[in-house]
Each structure stands twice: as C-alpha cells, then as structure tokens.
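Proteins fold reproducibly. Take a tokenised chain:

. . .
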Amino acid sequence: RPTLRSGCKRLNRRGPTKAGKQLSVKQSSLLLLPGAIAVFSMPFFGIAPSPAFQNSVSVPRPHRLAVRGWVDGGVPQHVCLHPAMVACRAAKRADGAPICDGDTVYIKVQTGRYIGELDGTSRKEWVKARGTKKDADHALTIEKPGGGEVQSGDMIKIVMPLTMTNGTKVHMDIVGSAVRARYYDPRGEWQKMTIVKQEGGTIRDGDKIFIRSVFMNGRDYMDANPLEKIADGEVKCRWPDEGEWQVMTIEK
C-alpha cells in the first residue's frame, strides 16, 4: 500500500540532481524557491523578462486566473494571479470606501454646493447648501442605528457641522417641506431619513444618493433649488421624485 514515505521516495528519484546525487524534496524546494520569488516579483518592480524567458514560462494552472501583464513586441503575455487578488484589486479601483455609522461626510447637492450652513431671521435653523469646498463648516456626521456600513434603504440621522452649532450636536430634521436643524434627539421621528441609491447595496464615497423623509408620509425627497432661481442655497423636501433636483453626492 502506498504511503507518504514511499511517495516522497518516488518524488526523490525524479527530483533535480546536483553533482550526480539525488536531492530530497526539501532540498529541491529550497533550490527552486529563490527563482520562484524572483519570477513573481518582476511585475511589481517594473522588470520585464527577456523574450526567451517569457517563452519558457509554462501555462498557468486551471485554478489560477491569467491577467494581461508583460508586453513584448505588441504581443500580450500573462502573469498568474489568484482570482481573489484580482477581484480585490478591481473592487478597490471601481468603488470608494464604504460609508459607516459615525463617519464624517460631505453632501453635495445638484448645484455643486455642500450642505452645512444654517440661516434664519429670528433663529438660525434653516439648512442651506452654499459650500464650495469640503471643510469643517460642511462636515456632517452620519448616524445609523445598530452601527456598521450604511446600505441603500437604511434609516439614518445627520448631525450638522459643530462649527455651525457652537459645538453642540444638532440633528437635521424634516417636517413637511421644511428642512431645519433644531434639536439633538436620537429617538425623534422628525430626524429620521432614508438614504437611497438607485443601484442598491452599500453606500460608498462618491455615490449618487437621494434622501427621503420618514416623518408623516415618508415619500418626499430632499431637493435643492437651482442657484439661478434662489441664490441662497435653499434646501427643501417637496416632491416624491428621484429627479435632477433631488440627486446628491456623498463624499468622505
């Protein structure tokens, strides 16, 4: 009956030789290891092997994924990478970082301005979008019950910039069409909002989003007037429409 020892002996007889002597499996591995490290580190250091060496490279094994690598004379060659590594690199290129509970975010409305300012005659509580850059005056904080990554359809609350509220936490709230910031109420209904991404899934840095009111009918979306209509950056919540006025961009 074949055993591990007998299998090793068979490998031993077929292994490379040195000075006419048979080498053990361990010795063979040690001899091959430096060459393997050198081969697979070449692409990462921008080193292209000679054409003779490229032609001697064997075809990748079936459980590996061949991706385009070295190019010699316009003919693409291949470098062997694990499928999980390829998928991870593609995800990093395609997607931004996920938005999580407690993150500082910047929300840009369709006018290209960031939400953050508070205005009003008797009391500064009306939310405006006048910011032209991401700074402390437009740094909002996302709160999600239960914590974790924010998904499309999650109920969230938004804390206004502390520089605009004298260092006191204040939630943005929506009642009817009015978008204001008056209280910090973790259990309040006026402060609840639903964040929506049309593609669904995790909300990420740079995503196009919509924010829907939860209080009362829970059907209308936050919107911003074009600057040519109302130049003060007014933010409202008026229509059940995911349209051009309602689309926003969330950034970290």
